[in-house]
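[Automated response] Your request has been received and processed.

Submitted sequence:
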Amino acid sequence: MDNLDAARLQMAFTLMFHIVFACIGMVMPFFMVVSHYKWLKTRNPIYLKLTKAWQKGVAIFFVTGAVSGTALSFELGLLWPEFMKHAGPIIGMPFSLEGAAFFVEALAIGFYLYGWNKLNERFHWITGVIIGVSGVASGILVVSANSWMNAPSGFDYVDGKFLNIDPVEALLNPAWFAQALHMTLAAFAATGFAVAGIHAWQVYKKRNPEVHAKAFHIAIVFGGIAALLQPLSGDISAKDVAQRQPVKLAAMEAHYETKKGVPLFIGGIVDEKNKTVSHKIEIPNALSFLAFGDFDAEVRGLNDFPQDELPPVAIPHYAFQIMVTMGGIMAMSALVYFISVRRRKWWEKSWFWLAFAILAPAGYIALEAGWVVTEVGRQPWIIHKIMRTKDAVTPMPGMVYSFYFYVLLYTILTLTVIWLMRRQIKVLNEKID
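Generated structure:
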């Protein structure tokens, strides 16, 4: 394994874990404050028990997100020094602002965790809201830095030099809104379905179902609304990619020939050697319409781009299909839930709880697949059309050992989180005195 492959694998592996920790840390505070609000209004001890269990989950994922995020910040300098040399002054602002948001979140968590019976009840609840808002702000700012890699702006690139740097323009780059909206909704959908699925399983197994049913309904409302809105943000993202990164769109759809009135492929097996896609379902003219709002619009194919600027095709194509499939299933499941609000007898059926328990990982499968599309689809560039990934990697040998170390570190971190969260579920399974 050479340095480039080791660096790519290490970055992919750590991001795969961090994105889950970060999204849960962004979204769970909102579940917590809704439960807390219900406790303040009803004084139902179930909501107090649920709030205190969820606040421990928020604390756990705040710490793990901080650890994994700090490791990633070191990786940027360790693995990609040439990238940081030039990109640091340009996208330093979103990272600095993210640090400020993280600091506010840390203060709010301190007030919230230790404020029970010490602070005014309304102020105490507001500190929980601040945790959630600052967490979402952190996520949006980090996504802004990533979107800049897809739509570099805020500088002039002259003779290999980055001149006339404008950090604000870089922060508000052309891709930031589409990516931030899509990622934020994905975080809420994935975490909402995951948390709801965990509690649905407990209801299905009849383990203190009254507590877990209330937890399920809070989580699935957030997850369901986000899942129903996600196709709209997906449409915005697809049109944005079609305009700025047409080669990524072509890879996502495994579309090789430039044509007008291009069909949308559902499924399909990619043969990169022969540049064909077999066993797919075609929806006539749909890709042209989704990309440009015109059924007869021309869509550029992969054969229209230089060979040395093509990303791998099979990986983003399969990842895109997985993302869309999981997203579609979640949206339909959300409709089932909201219909069931009027037909509460469905909640009495074991199939209802089992179905949502099975769906627990769906959102994070879609989330991981979406990041594969974003990152692999941009290759061979680390900064689109400006710097190639191979030119940004460290020249120092031995990165494979760093990769192995990070695999071990994140495996231990993940097992620790699983152990801690299982303890919280056991607490919720205990009857209220």
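Summary generated for your ticket: Residues 352 and 365 are 21 Å apart (CA to CA). The radius of gyration is 23 Å.
If you did not submit this request, please reply to this message.
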